[in-house]
Amino acid sequence: MIWLTWRQFRPQAIAAACALAAVAIVLIATRPGLSADYTAAGLSACHAHCATAASIFLDRVGNFDKFLDFAGVLLIIVAPALMGLFWGAPLIAREVADGTHRIAWNQSVTRTRWTIVKLGLVGLAAIATAGLLSLIVTWWTSPIDAASLAGGSAQAATGGNGVHVTFNGFAEARLDPVIFDARGVAPLGYAALAFALGVTAGVLLRRTLPAMAVTLVAFVAIQVLMPNFIRPYLLPPSHATVPLSIQNGIHVNTNAGSGLSEIQLTGSFAKPGTWVLSQAFYTGRRVDPYVIVTSSGPELVMAPQACIPTPGSSGINPADCQSALAALHLRESVIYQPASRFWPLQWIETGIYLLLAAGLGWVCVWQIRRKRTP
Amino acid sequence: MTNAIEARALGKRYGRRWALADCTLTIPAGHVAGLVGPNGAGKTTLISLATGMLAPTTGTVEVLGGRPAAGPGQLARVGYVAQDTPTYAGLSVADHLRLGAHLNPRWDAAMARARIEQLGLDPKQKAGKLSGGQRAQLALTVALAKRPELLILDEPIASLDPAARREFLQVLMNATAEQELSVVMSSHQVSDLERVSDYLVVLVASRVRIEGEVDGLLATHHLLTGPRRDAASLTASQQVITESHTGRQSTFLVRTSEAVIDPAWTVDPVSLEDLIVAYMGHASTESAEIRMLEVKR
Q1: Are residues A246 and A142 in the same domain?
Q2: Which three-class secondary structure state does DSSP give residue A17?
Q3: Sign of the alpha-carbon dihedral angle for A288, A293, A334, A263
């Protein structure tokens, strides 16, 4: 049975190995340049307050390396779906559609064993492919990930508004939903589930093309649901309340000419690599009626009187504005997953996906044992 | 002696439609048994149930005394060539033999190779590029080389041209002679069965019309021709299968274990084909009679 499974899977295995080798060659060839930049920026010798060095390094990352960083994320997110579509869905559906299951099921091997061996071996191949891909991409991007972590922490110390450095269009922090999906062990679970979804759809629908369509829809739905509705609560999130001050999370822009003042609340809560789930602003006591402080948005449309310049005057008295703002007792309430949760969340999520995949595998075996397609 | 196939009140339903209903039959081992019947009689369903490809809705079926496809041991005892003789299009002829060798404990590699050579098939050729006849031969070779005790074939020659059909049956006949193999083969090609079968089961609308050894059936069926008379006037031991009348003459196909002694009759032997056609037709006239009776009431 192992021989037959391998013989049938051989073309796909060779294609996957070639693709993996091509990715590995490109990444191994370009990685030394990235490492050299990392060292040149002084990051490998830096142990604390490395924001400047991190920024220097990230500025140096070339366009091609940026493209590779982006492509790596894309590849790891897409690969499990592809394996579900092209390895999972046809695995049994194609046999049933071509009638070849009637040969296979009439050799001296029970169909239960036939199903388990096919599912097991090709499923392991899918998991291994995703694992190798994740390993090599995680290794290649580790300087960028490290610099992002260092840069994020540095910006918080200087009162910056970001928790993460935004690099390449997305927040390059390991707990960010997009990056989380493309690092560590989670891709193994995704590959297992996508593959199992494909096989199950094939067993139930008995035709390859509809099975592929159902697999794609189901997998995309799960991958959207997971980071938005389930992952944030896999571990109880942390909660923090941080007071805001003009040095810390409140930005005042005055326009003396028009006599308007805009106050922007950006928050001061920033820990390197944290995943902020929700951010809200509160004030603790009654405030001047001309001030609108809402918890829904970080923008103060109208400012305290002391912060609004009289038209034609030279401006406001910063000390008065500052004390007026301090009197508001503005504070920021943040619900977040700390950076240290990265690996626990990775393992929990991978475990959930592997369990789901195993459950679907059981459904396949049970269906084939019981229903017996003609 | 165990039975090749034994079905008791066997039924298979798809939604509301019964593909096979309340079928009871016994095909003893040690024969090349032909399973004939019109389209829709339930032949393929019966065979799918006997090979364990389907699970019955009602009743039971035993093959060589065991539940179909119950385990590796049972699977090893039964060879099956499915309708349209499927093969793995992307696998070569040699790969199919390797498949058989890996999946069957009793695989006869030498025999399989010899057959492929004898058939003139190129081992490197992909099965998808073979002709229909060659594919059927490959499927038969895989089924035979696993050294089964029973070989079940479902209309294996329906799609073949006459030459390929003859060659297929020849290979089958040689194999049964060499391997002491029981065969159950469904077909509606009566002439083909005539050449190879020594046991016959006629299945019409899930019911066994007649079954028995071909020699015995031929010996107990006679075509009687004589002056016109009513079927009721025949001896009680003579069971009328079909009758036809002209103005002066009556012709009866009768089944009887006794010799026909009435000198008024000209007694002719029947061919297997006549017999099969008679029983397949018999069913329809019988059901027509039932309908007429119902109308009269």
Answers
A1: no
A2: helix
A3: negative
pLDDT tens digits along B138-192: 999 999 999 999 999 998 877 778 888 888 888 888 888 888 889 999 987 777 7
The tokens for B290 are: 């039932």
Interface list for A 95-154 with B (CB within 8 A): 98-100, 102-103, 105-111
**Tokens (6 digits) for A336:** 């977040």
Global pTM?
A: 0.85
List the single residue in B86, B98, B105 with the smallest CB-CB distance to A103.
B86
How distant, in Å, are the alpha carbons of A79, A210, B268 from that of A205?
23, 7, 56
Q: Cβ B142–A103 below 8 Å, yes or no?
A: yes
Are the beta carbons of B197 and B26 closer than 8 angstroms? no
A180 and A324 together in one domain = no
Mean pLDDT to the nearest integer, B74-96: 92
Query: Do A33 and A148 belong together in one domain?
Result: yes
A96, A107, A370: best to mutate for the B interface, most B CBs within 10 A: A107
Question: Do A29 and A71 belong to one domain?
Answer: yes
Instruction: Test A106 with B106 for CB contact under 8 angstroms.
Output: no
Whether A372 and B88 lie within 8 Å, measured CB to CB: no
Where do the domains of chain B lie, and which CATH numbers do they carry? 3-205 (3.40.50.300), 216-296 (no CATH)
Q: Are residues A366 and A277 in the same domain?
A: no
> In chain A, how many domains are there?
2
Please state the rounded mean pLDDT for residues B46-51.
93
CB contact (8 A) between residue B78 and residue A102: no
3-class secondary-structure state, position A20: helix
The answer, for A158 touching chain B at a CB cutoff of 8 Å, is no
**Could you list the residue range(s) of the whole structural domain that residue A169 is in?**
2-236+340-370
Contact A171, A145 (CB under 8 A): no
* DSSP bridge pairs for A336: A238, A276
Amino acid making up residue A195 = F
Question: Which alpha helices (DSSP H) does B82-131 contain, by range?
Answer: 93-103, 109-119
Q: Chain A window 293-352: which residues touch B at a Cβ cutoff of 8 Å?
A: none
- Interface mutation vs chain A, best among B75, B97, B98, B184, most A CBs within 10 Å: B75
Q: Which two tokens stand for residue B29?
A: 């081992």
Is residue A98 domain-shared with residue A138, that is, in the same domain? yes
Q: How many CB atoms lie within 10 A of CB A137?
A: 23
A345 with A317, same domain? Answer: no
End-to-end CA distance of chain A: 21
- State in Å, rounded, how far the first CA of chain B is from the last one: 48
> Is pLDDT of A11 > 50?
yes
A204 and A112 in a single domain? The answer is yes
**Range of A150-154, A264-268, A314-318, B40-44 with top mean pLDDT:** B40-44
Q: Does B69 touch chain A (CB under 8 A)?
A: yes
* Exposure letters A72-90 (e unless 16+ CB within 10 A, then b): bbebbeebbbbbbbbbbbb
Among B71, B82, B102, the residue with its CB nearest the CB of A99 is B82
Q: How far is B243 from chain A (nearest CA, A)?
A: 40
